[in-house]
Amino acid sequence: MPQPLTSIPLILLTIAAALSSVTALRRLGTPEGQRTGLTLQHTLVGVITLGCAAIFCFRWLILHESWQPLQAHVDGLLLIGTLLAGSILFIQARPRLFGLSAFALPLLTLILAWGICAALWTYRAFNLDSFQPVWIGFHTGSTYLGLLSCMIGAGAGAMYLFVQHRLKSKIHLPGTMPLASLETLETLIIRAATLGFVLLTLSLITGLIIVTQTVRETALGPSWWTSPKVWLATAAWATYALLLNVRYATSFRGRRAAWLAIGGLVLLLATYGAVEAIEGRAAREKATANTSAMIQPEARPCAS
After folding, report:
1. What are the pLDDT digits (tens) for 137-188?
2. What are phi and psi of 72, to 5 degrees?
3. Residue 295 and which of 120, 182, 252, 256 are 20 to 30 A apart at CA?
4. DSSP letter (8 states) at residue 121
5. CB 194: neighbour CB atoms within 10 A?
6. What's the pLDDT score for residue 219?
7. CB of 196 within 8 A of CB of 153?
8. Short-list 177, 89, 75, CA closest to 126
């Protein structure tokens, strides 16, 4: 059910995120006055952080009135938006990470735009009555926090490719602050991948427990192991497992590690897309079946 108190502020925050993304990209390529637009960028990201946190707390404490804050997909996206915006505020205050916000802010815009879709058109509450709430709490929390870590790693990977291209092309803009070094970005990729791997592992384990205990009540059905959701999630997990070993395998360091971080995020987003498609179809089929049962006339005995 669409809720204006969620969707309208999300639309405004998405516009603010898009504007801050444009500002960060302009600052990245401005040959003079690298502080141009910095105040605006800081203000917008601060407003987004507070706005996402306020909507998340409103839904959790007032709308849901439950200890479980993640009761729908939009709640998880709001959690990611709050933490990602807060991380960008931290990044903007670190000169060693100059330029990274220009690659993280478009991801923040994507998350908030996704939140609008989840609030307006594809809203569907999680089925929290099918299994123990503790398991679903661990599963949803680790899933969304793992996605957040992977998004930070992918943003660092995209910037790594950008900085490497500039170095190879010998592009230098006088008057600008030096961008984050390749070594710093590679370290950030590894750390984000490590945290993401741990959280995704927890998500897969708890998800396996949930599916095997309630297989008849879930949208995946008895053949859950053949679901695209399971295969894509496993592929993303394997990608980040490979990223953990880049320090020990020189063939996967640097540029290849950056591409692995980006590819892992793409797999995760595809997993979420598969989840929405599968569960959305199951919900529509269930609604159709319930409607048909309601309008079907009752059978009456024939008169003899």
Report:
1. 788 888 889 889 989 999 999 999 998 888 887 766 555 567 888 889 988 9
2. -155, 165
3. 120
4. T
5. 15
6. 47
7. yes
8. 75
CB 102 within 8 A of CB 21: yes
Q: How many CA atoms lie within 13 A of 53 on its CB side?
A: 11
Return the closest-CA partner of residue 212 out of 85, 220, 29.
Answer: 220
Cα–Cα distance measured from residue 188 to residue 182, given in angstroms and rounded to the nearest whole number: 10
Q: 113-123 pLDDT, tens per residue? A: 999 988 888 77
Q: What amino acid is encoded at 182 in this protein?
A: L
Section 201-206 average pLDDT: 85
Spatial distance between the Cα atoms of 155 and 109, rounded to a whole number of angstroms: 13
Residue with tokens 């804050």: 69
Contact 166/179 with Cβ under 8 angstroms?
Answer: yes
- Residue 185 and residue 98 in contact, taking contact as beta carbons nearer than 8 Å: no
Q: How far apart are CA 87 and CA 150, in angstroms?
A: 13
Q: Is 285 exposed, middle or buried (0-12, 13-18, 19+ CB in 10 A)?
A: exposed
